[in-house]
Amino acid sequence: MLFSIFGSYGMQLMSGISPLFITKETPVILVADDDKSTRMLLRDAMEKEGYRVVEVSDGKQCLDVYASVKPDLVLLDAVMPIMDGFTCCKQLSKISSNFGNSTLANPVIESSLNTSAISLLWNSTPILMITGLDDPESVDRAFEAGATDYVTKPIHWAVLRQRVRRLLQQAQLYKQFEAATHALHELANIDGLTGVANRRRFDHYLNIKWLNLAQEQLPLSLILCDIDYFKLYNDKYGHPAGDVCLQKVAAVLNRLAQRNEDLVARYGGEEFAVIMPNTHAAGAVHVAASIQAGVRELQMDHSESEVSHYLTLSLGVATTLPSFEASSKTLVVAADKALYQAKAEGRNRIILKQLNC
User: Is residue 192, in this structure, part of any structural domain at all?
Assistant: First the structure.
């Protein structure tokens, strides 16, 4: 079903997260306790359960190794020197929250995803606090700091083993859900044929950048490009060849629009777009010329073209200073008019239109 909806790229992306649902990796448990004998007992108990264990002796060390270890569970003592468990727990929760927000705000769009999505979503690591404090205030404080569960000393080892097992199972299910949601979010924003952003992502990203740059009073440029005589290309070489053509052109755009903030999108049919935040007209025209040359260098035969023996592009470039009094549509209209003019004047050329710059 996903294949029929999103195309071959969707199947590729979904296949990249399939290992999440049957994980064979040994869970890693990070133990933070200032008492060496307690750490040794915890290590022994956890290793007997088949887990890998990493030890630290205070909250600061726990924070220092957390990002590199990427534990599946943290066993955290509440009372420790240098940084106590409550403070450490709050910091771990903050790291998780910041990481999760940045992941959702900046969805990754790539031609392939080789990194397991679960490694991108390890931020939901459960925290089990183990301490001699058992008064109601300490219990409340632990959960307010972000603890997932709480056990007291002396440790009841059978209870601890069961809670660790339950938390790891819950965390695994949560990460599977997060990874699947992340993959579906990717699919909803990607063109199935070319692997670049789709029109939905284009509209959303352009509106966000328009508002951001209106506040910052920085320029925004847009390139619209159209493959010259693409219908004749399809008629001559066939639709499968036309699909390959679109993929190769998209790859050129992706390679030459190199800045992190630039977004390449399939605007519709044989038309592509490049959103270029904080880019003046000269910079946008330079990128447009590079794209035009990059497609020409593909030397893809196009015997039906009236302007070249090879595949060519017509490009319209528009630049403006966004404002809250106008909308992003004004930039799209300007770039579209520039593209129309490029085609009307003979194709295989670049036309620039500047608005209130």
Answer: no
The torsion defined by the Cα of 112, 292, 271 and 16, in degrees rounded to 10, comes to: 0
Which residues 6+ apart lie within 8 Å of 59 measured at CB?
32, 76, 80, 82, 83, 84, 85, 87, 88, 91
Please tell me whether the overall predicted TM-score, pTM, comes out greater than 0.70 for this model. no
Query: How far is residue 200's CA from residue 57's CA, in Å, rounded to a whole number?
Result: 49
CATH of the domain at 336: 3.30.70.270
**d(Cα 301, Cα 281) in Å, to the nearest integer?**
31
Q: Work out how many domains the chain is built from and give that number.
A: 2
Q: Are residues 154 and 255 in the same domain?
A: no
Tell me the C-alpha distance between 197 and 273, whole Å: 9
Strand order in the sheet with 52-56: 52-56, 28-32, 73-77, 127-131, 149-152
Instruction: Return the H-helix or E-strand segment holding 315.
Output: strand 313-320
**Residues 6+ away with beta carbon under 8 Å from 159:** 151
3-state secondary structure (DSSP) of residue 102: helix
Residue with tokens 């950048």: 209
Report d(CA 99, CA 272) in Å as an integer.
Answer: 32
The catalytic site residues sit at 270
Digit-coded pLDDT (tens) for 52-67: 999 999 999 999 999 8
Please give the residue range of the domain that contains residue 169.
Answer: 2-187
Same domain, 220 and 171: no
Give the residue, 11 or 213, on which the prediction is more confident: 213
User: Does pLDDT of 40 surpass 90?
Assistant: yes
CATH assignment at residue 107: 3.40.50.2300
Backbone angles phi, psi at 162, to 5 degrees: -65, -40
- The CA-based angle 19-21-27, given to 5 degrees, is 85
- Indicate the residue among 187, 213, 240 that finishes a domain: 187
- Quick one: pLDDT at residue 357? 62
Give the C-alpha separation, 348 to 49, whole Å. 67
- Check whether residue 37 and residue 11 sit in a common domain: yes
